[in-house]
Design a protein that fits this description.
- The complex is a heterotrimer of chains A (388), B (720) and C (330).
- Chain A has 388 residues and is an alpha+beta fold.
- Helix content of chain A is 57%, strand content 13%.
- A four-stranded antiparallel beta sheet of chain A has the order 1-2-3-4.
- In chain A, helix 6 packs across helix 12.
- Chain B is an alpha+beta fold.
- In chain B, a hairpin with a 5-residue loop joins strand 20 and strand 21.
- Chain B is globular, with a radius of gyration of 26 Å.
- Chain C is an all-alpha fold and 330 residues long.
- Chain C has two domains: 92 residues, no CATH class; 222 residues, MetI-like fold (Orthogonal Bundle).
- In chain C, 52% of the residues are buried.
- The chains are: A alpha+beta (388), B alpha+beta (720), C mainly alpha (330).
- Chains B and C meet through helix 12, strand 16, helix 13 and helix 20 of B and helix 2, helix 3, strand 2, helix 5 and helix 7 of C.
Chain lengths: 388, 720, 330
Amino acid sequence: MNYLSKIKNKFFSDKIPEEIIVQEDESIQIATQRQLIWRRFKRHRLGFASSIVVILFYVVVLFADFLATSVPVHYGAARGFMPPQPIKFFQEGDFLSVCHVIGERNLESFRMEHTADCNNREPLQLFGKGYEYKLWGLFKTDRHLFAMKNPDANVDEWIHLMGTDKQGRDVFSRVMHGTRVSLTIGIIGVGLSIVFGIFIGSISGYYGGLIDSLLQRFIEIIRSVPTIPLYMGFSAAFPADWTINQVYFMITVIISLFAWTDLARVIRGRFLSLRDEDFVVAARLNGASTMRIVFVHMLPSFYSHIIAQASLALPLMIVTETSLSYLGLGLRPPAISYGVLLKDAQNVQAVAHSPWLFLPAIFVIVVILALNFMGDGIRDAADPYQEV
Amino acid sequence: MFRKFQFGLVLVAMLSMGVVAMSCSDEEAEEVTNTTNASAAAKAAPPAAKAAAKAAAPAAKAPKVVETSKTTKAATADDQAAGLGEGDVSWPSLSDSMPSSFSESPLCAAQAAAGTIPALEDRLPDNPLVISPAESIGEYGGTWFRGFTGPADGQNMERPMKDHLLFFGTNMTDVQANIGESWTSNADATEFTITLRKGLKWSDGDDFNTDDIMFWVDNMLSDEEINPSPPAWAKSGGELLKFTALDKETIQINSLEPYGLLITLIASVVVAGPHTRGDGGDGLYAPSHYLKQFHPNFIDGGVAAANAAAEAEGYDNWAKYFLFKNHANANPDSPMMTAWKVTQPITSEQWALERNCFYYAVDTDGQQLPYMDYVVLDLAENLEVLNLKAIAGEYTVQGRHIDLSKLAVFKENSDKGNYRIQFWRQPESGIANLYINEDWGRGPNGSPELASFLTNKDFRAALSMGTERDEINEVFFLGLGEVGGLCAGWDDPNNPGKYIGEDYVQFNPDAANALLDAMGLDKRDSEGMRLMPSGEKIVVTHSVAVAAFEDYEGIDGMVIEQWRQNLGVDGKLDAQERSLWSGRIDTNEAQLNSWESSGRAGAIITPNHLGMVGAGGFIARVSATDHLDGIYADGWMGEWQRLYDEAVSDGSKYAPNLQRVVELNCENVNPITTVMNKPTYTAIIKKNVHNVPNPLPFSYHAQTSGNGFPETWWLEGGNQ
Amino acid sequence: MLNFLIRRTVFMFVALFAVTVISFFIINLPKGDYVTAYIAQLQATGSLVDADEASNLRKFYGLDRPLYIQYLKWISQIVLEQNLGFSFEYNQPVTVVIAERLLLTIILAIATIIFIWIFAIPIGIISAVKQYSFWDYLFTFLGFIGLAIPDFMIALIMMYLFFVWFDFSPGGLFSPEFSQAAWSYARVMDLIEHMWIPIVVLGTAGTAQLIRITRANLLDELAKPYVVTARAKGLSEWKVIAKYPVRIALNPAISLTAYILPFLISGSVIVGVVLSLPTVGPMLVKALVAQDMYLAGGIILLVGFMTVIGTFISDLLLLWIDPRIRFEGS
């Protein structure tokens, strides 16, 4: 399945050349490498705008509970399959308010039918009190972006910005939590890939020759094994008594176990080209240890490439997670991730009757696009002439 | 491709046969002879058809055969609410009055005219099976379109095409004639005879007679390679049953010990015929004329030559090759006794069957059955695709694999797709029972403290009372199931007006929490989750199979949330592919399993659901294994095992013990039932299909839709 | 050069061997075996199998032998007899089981590649020639959307909408009347009719890639002095672009094709599952679930084989197209 995504990734690395505007500014003479990259990046408008979107997504990751309105696992059959309910502005003195929605199953069509009764409204409060949670696992609080003004009103029954699923759970709140899980998996997975990639890539690129050949062949072999059986084999081997967190972590590790190969190739390429640069030779002649040369002298010279590569690898991680979950190999409920949410929608009745269950897909698409554009931007900024 | 059952299944469904065969023998004649239509027509009608049974009862008194069991009965309240149970009850039945003349379909007539098959008179047995259709005499023609999911989906057509020597009526309890025309048993129930119809033919035109049974007995059942461990039903008192062919039409079976249920088993899926069981080397008979060429006993050169032939075809040894040749679904060359014969194997993208011009059944007008010429099943490995094809109206009749949760989409498209929807229900069946493993403490990761709660009846009662069954019913079954216990309908002698366990299936969080507080689970952590006396949080792990017939993952996920919110009992979901899930049970790692239970009447037939006997068992796998070695468990499980053993050996105890064991389950709240009696199949039926019984009660042992006699279904105006 | 070819060929076999080992042991990673899966499947329908019988079954299928013996038996059969083993579930030799599906899989992959080419190359050229124009942005945007939408989702939605709007028979690659028919003109037309959805779903991602590659390469070429010279000499704009830059820009696209073929085959697994296509993908997933190990192993081996061969061909093509490329050690 993910070969396609892998290729996507591979070819993302073929940069789009951007026109480079030569700077006549005097400050350019004294700017550091990092400042130069930053300047160029800011000029890459799409990349820059995308990075803001990415930051917003990571704000969601950090504040998922704050943004969510209700506990994402709170169910209620009577509010199942509720379409998105709008927030009303400026109704009879209330800045924000929501209408009461009554759900009932139509015994003729067997669909849930919901009618909004706007005579029965409840005002909303920004930064009000809702369910209690621990922010970053540390601070206990019950503040939410949207909450009910009336402390007796049960938020589960009132706010449904993106509708509800089969069990009457709030889709918006679930998307917030799903974002947290999927994007964290992405970051951890990419982190692990970078570690593997740097390790193998630097050995391969620094030593070259036979070791390089062997490692390159090894990478090719890994790439020739279809991933689905690999994932199936591993995920079936998880013990029963693992907690969701353990499974979650292992899935990340597994995804990254097969995602590092691209990164390793890139890093190897950089090492090969830097190996004979003066500053490396100088360091070697100075008697610096191999480790020191690699980590102190060589790696920092292409940090930005690693960042670019990482932001291009992230979307792959996210897509992989959704695909794995679709096949039932990734995260499983009660865990919430993009994959779990999309799998919930992956049936005929959702397409026919409750299309809002596909709203999480929009988040997936936006974050993947944003990460891709951001990655392109960083890479072009880091070195416009770099061939990968 | 092997025995699809085993030793635990000693008693199949049937109150009627077991009880009739054994209890009648005392007062009545030495021998009980049964003919075409079992006279006990109404004795044990399923609850769904109680009224029907009542109406039929007077007729049943007379030994004479009821011409048609067409009776009227209002549809159940649910069916009416659903708008799906319109019309009168109509069931097919067997008829004793032989039509004066016979006729055949144009398809067969053309072949007969061309000389490729003999004339109709030479194809039908002397005494064909006469079936009186549910509604009307049909017209020939048309194709039955269905969907199937791959080579493992053999039951898809095994169910509608029963080739058992004897079979059940639509009510799933009365044993009736089929290939065999009558049967007898002696007073001790140790000697049985089954008389086959004279002049039966295989689908290739060859004669069918007791040679085919004896071939199976001598060369398959007793063959080490084909049957390393013979099926449990074929043994009595540790010995294989003794089969003797009295003549070409009569087979005699002797058992070492009384075996009153043998006839019932033969009618059921447990014994079945070669179509269902042939790939495992079972099925009571086999096409000897065809199979001899693959069996070393009949080949020059014996085993070596047989193996060489098998290896030349890519098979490891002759036995595998032989079994493949006897697997009619996969090998269209294998002759069949069913209404349709396979023309394209189940391993292809399209599994196709064509009418068997040698089929032994006719309608009351003498028309040879089946009515429909072809059956064509399209491969749809993904159930969403299969259901979408059903929504599009591509299937003629399909109940298997149809997803109830798509009912709204089905209803919406029923005019466009030109189909109606019928629910096939399984009386008193559990859908997602929560089986708590009483033996978990003896398993590899069992902790004594948690185990002490799992084995505590009050703990289970509390969990049960903290479960909101209405919510589950509404969310997962569109409100079409029922909220009730396994023992519903049986008065509790100690608490008249209620059934045992009725209180436990009511949502009552206060009572539940009081119970939990009282048993030492009164401390809670910062999240409000209960702690065990040691200070460790109590976490109940639900092991569920994914991609099963029901959405156990979803249901158990909801139950976990309910227990967390209502009781403060934390839970965890361990969802696995079916084989891994079943592995968890085998290794005794699972704390709580979610699975169905078949109709209450099956408690002893399929004891792996409610019991702790045989090799199965969700409630206590280790105790079940101990029981095989004659060790009884302590407490209520031991009582269950003793009652079971008694029912197996003494047919007269079957009915009372059946009720008592289920009551034990109810008393001890294991399993914790959630929703009961949802429609097992949501059948999608083209509007122009006639003779589908209404209602059609569902069971595995009677192979529904086989008990609906699909050979009598016909298409008005052909395929639409 | 010759040295390079020899080394690549030797490596190809080493890689294939490694793929067989890895795949065989991965398949055996989950607990249990085919017998466990089979018993579980029987239990689902209410049947039971006892422990004795299970061990007999294991013996029957040779699953009681140590793993490495099973592997050696399997691999020696493949090498010596071109026999991929026996599928438990189909009760037939693996080669028989997958032959037709493999053919359809390859047909689908090739059709997808043609689809990608037809759409991606002209669009890539337009995007490059009219860089930063409305069309450039539109196509780039559409391409990215295609890349970002999870393919299993778009497959289901398309299948449903095509059914609702155009009465398309959902799923599969053939209408019922053609699914088992012999190959004929009518059957080919039927296949083409049914292939649209999978091709579009599978092709969107590849199209987006190829657009990007074509665009990027062409932009590189267009900036080169010889193009400027050609323009200065007054050649028509069309000739300037088509004569050399486009041809050179297509080089990587050609080598991509050989590279993408095996990926398309395994990439079609999820789409195949969703659309219930008679390709090897869904069969692989089912075989893995049922632990039908020789069937799963056979499919993995073939896909791995195609990947290795594809990479090899892609290297050769590159070498042939662009002699400037040097290979290490040659």
